Amino acid sequence: MSKSEMQLVQSIFPFTNLEQVPISFEYDGQRIQGIPASFATDVVRRTISANIQQTVITALNEDGLKIVVEHLEYSDFPATEWVAFLTNTANSRSKTVSKLRIIDGALPHANAELAYSNGDNMNASGYEFYERSVDQEAFTLTPHDGTSCNGASPYMKLLFEGFGVSIGIGWPGKWSASMHAKPEGIAVSIGQDRMHMYLNPGETIRTPRVNFLGFLGDEAHGRNLWRRWYLKHILPREHGKPLPPKLCLHDWRPDGTEFTHATEGKQLAALNQYVDRGMKPDIWWFDAGWYPCDHFWPRTGTWEHDRSRFPRGLAPIGERCEELGVQFLLWFEPERVQAGTKLDAEHSDWLLYPGDENDVNRVLNYANPEALQWTIDHVDRLIKEYRVHIYRQDLNFDPMPFWIRYEGEDRVGAIENLHIQGYLAFWDEIIRRNPGLWIDSCAAGGRRNDLETMRRSVPLHYTDVGYGHHPIKQKQHRYMFEWIPYFRAHTMNWDNEEGAYEPAGNQPIDAYAYHAAMAPSLTSMIPFDEETARFELGKRMHVLWRRAAELMLEADYYPLTDTRKSEEDYYAMQFHNPDKEQGFFQIVRNTRAEDDRFVLYPKGVDASQTYILENMETGEKKRLSGAEWLQGFEVAIPKRAGQLWFYRKQVG
């Protein structure tokens, strides 16, 4: 990043004085913008780390309403961050707080385009990109339900002439972001979508956390500046170190749905056979169905192992993983309780019930301190007892109707706010109690991958859509590589002999499936007892994948083709490390792409240097000058195939 970029961030809602703090809300019907002079205030500046400075603004009014606003400034990136907390310090309930926005102000720049996405919406139309002009009519983005990424992505960019601003919103519920043009610039308003509530004595509510990152130049530079910032400051660590690529394996063919027919014997036999045959995973994946569930995996709410299938619990699996140096991942969905389960029978006071008597779902209410504490203690006990290394949390339904049903007209948004605070506190505490533990975030796929969630987790299952539909997966990866650069993909094939995906089903795993699944984390769908030839293919492709994945986590990302979710397209991408002058590029010819040849034009290549290129699958090597390479790299690839070339600058 340049000095000019660091200066640019000073125009993105800086802290200059109390009245210009970008918070706003209505208090007893009166609009408050910034921190009014009538509040008693205190400002403290502290160093959080070598690269982060924090300013904490505390303000208290005569009614006992305390506002704490936290502002972070990054010295190694042109980034800034805001979040606020409101507490009722009085002995009686507060006046009504409504329309609380952590960001409400204008960027002093004109003529912006907004680049945004619809997130993961549980069908093939998700992970789409859009762009529109910001004009005088307000344009609002908000998710469809109580999850943060369903129908609207919490990641977006404002693009100006010659520069831009990337925005990341951290709120695991229903946020809202509105923008429109004003004479003084581009007005931006961000907060919890629904809020009109009093605060009980001692009660605290909070806003979303919002990050801004400024960049000069084109979108490609902005994309990679965001990736570098994310990988350094957002991606969770493993024992203090950045997460490396992870190969995931599991026994994905139990007799029932998900893992409802899994047993200790089957799990250990599959794990041992993978290892004995030379395919050792980094992660052993155990998903839904290990608890009493009557072979119906969503029957959550009795968080104990099924004693008939696991008489010794899950500890033997976790212990075997530790003996092998493998991480044990275990699935939970603690917020969903189903009718007739243990929590439903014993702790109905902790649950939010549906309005429809035919709905078997209940919400375990994290706004209830007892329910939250039980969840923390119980899950922590199971993590320790079972030797779990990766806690996987899912959410397969919309909690918003439950929150609304119990909130009341003078507490709009209260249960959502308190529940989300509990959700984040739960994760923070189990991480604190279990050093080295990290979290896999899932919500029926990628519906809850906002930036506050991503500070604590990675999305090893970013969608429930298109695992084996290669063009759909390419579009999904296009989004993930840009905004959430650590994620996992499956090696699956759903195409038929005509190159179409309808009708189709699971087809045998081949090299094409691996080319379509290049991501920092990978699940190989080759069964533990697969025939030798395919098993050996997987082992070879894992070497190729891991070398590429390591570069994905240290290099800049360049999409080199459009991604239209079309089997008639080529798909190409490049990862380039400008400091080491090395990287890789990949070209995939989809099932119905008619052109026999494709020309790739690389990014970041120095015309004055010479590069060594290697195709690990074929053993082919090339030596090209940068000037020659920049004129185009032509390949001939059969349909339904890919090429992956690694390159490095020639030294000496």
Description:
The protein is an alpha+beta fold and 652 residues long. It folds into three domains: 3-233, Beta-galactosidase, Chain A, domain 5, CATH 2.70.98.60; 246-552, TIM Barrel (Alpha-Beta Barrel), CATH 3.20.20; 558-649, Immunoglobulin-like. 22% of the residues lie in helices and 32% in strands. It is built from 13 helices and 40 strands. The model has no long low-confidence stretch (mean pLDDT 97).
Q: What's the level 1 CATH class of the largest domain?
A: Alpha Beta
By CATH, the topology of the largest domain is TIM Barrel
The helix tally amounts to 13
Largest sheet descriptor: 10 strands, antiparallel
- Overall mean pLDDT stands at 97
CATH architecture of the largest domain: Alpha-Beta Barrel
Helical/strand content category: alpha+beta
N- and C-termini, Cα separation: 29 Å
What is the count of β-strands?
40
Strand content: 25-35%
Instruction: Sum up the overall morphology in one term.
Output: globular
Radius of gyration: 26 Å
Given as residue ranges, the uncertain stretches (5+ residues, pLDDT < 50) are none
Please name the fourth-level CATH homologous superfamily of the largest domain. Answer: Aldolase class I
Q: What count of domains describes the coordinates?
A: 3
- Please give the share of residues in helix: 10-25%
